[in-house]
Amino acid sequence: MILVLAGTTEGREKAAALEKAGEQVIATTATEYGGELLRKNFKGEIISRPLESCELEKLIRERAIKRVVDATHPYAEQISTNARRACLSTEVPYERIERNSLKYSGEAAVIEAEDAAEAAGIAAAYRGNIFLTIGSRKLQFFSGAIDPEHLVVRILPLGASLEKCLDLGIPPKNIIAMQGPFDEELNRLLLRRYDATVLVTKESGTAGGTAEKIRAACSLGLPVILINRPKP
After folding, report:
1. What is the 3-class SS of 19-51, one letter each residue?
2. Is residue 105 part of a domain?
3. Disulfide check for 99: which of 46, 85, 205, 213 has CB 3.0–4.6 Å away?
4. Phi, psi of 53 (to 5 degrees)
């Protein structure tokens, strides 16, 4: 039995490929929505909720897992940490599928930040609307440093994400709930529509549409604050 942590495009592809090759596979996603996406091409067992290291360890032992494949998002630090701990404890091989880093050209005014807290501090120096495409988990750093009235957020169309935005004081008119990735033209249209003065995003690679975001901002003369990937 192989356990695939499959909360990304790469994870869904890996789970389906292993299943097609005749392997017995259990796949996990952090949300029910991720499970629905996975179900389109994967017929095996899916666990759709966050798992702590002790839960992963129990799953590995009880289901006789022989290998764990971590194909989670580059910024999903906690699940990767939990998986490595569980594999060390159970002495089961751990395999990490890491999507390629973006090789962006220097034509855009890209300002790199080590984490969300640093990015929020940099963004706070700009006037106007700050356009955030970083998901919902780290939004509190920005709402704590910037008037939420000037935060425009693009998030997944999930109830928990929307609820967090509203709890942080971000007005509904500034919340864009859409499933990406998006092409350059749509990014450009949204940046214009919300009168953005700066774009804040993560280095999520080709699969995350990072290049399209940077090109769109560049074409409008907007600076980009790029949050670097956490170091494993």
Report:
1. HHCCCCEEEEECCHHHHHHHHCCCCCEEEECCC
2. no
3. 205
4. -60, -35
The answer to whether the beta carbons of residues 71 and 4 sit under 8 Å apart is: yes
Closest CA to 193 of 220, 231, 162: 220
Q: In angstroms, rounded to a whole number, what is the distance separating the alpha carbons of residues 137 and 155?
A: 10
Domain that holds residue 58: 2-96
Judge if 122 and 176 occupy the same domain. yes
Per residue in 185-229, pLDDT (tens digit) is 999 999 999 999 999 999 877 667 888 999 999 999 999 999 988
pLDDT tens per residue, range 121-130: 999 999 999 9
| Tokens of residue 165, six digits | 């935005």
Q: How far apart are the first and last CA of the chain?
A: 26
Does residue 128 sit in the same domain as residue 204? yes
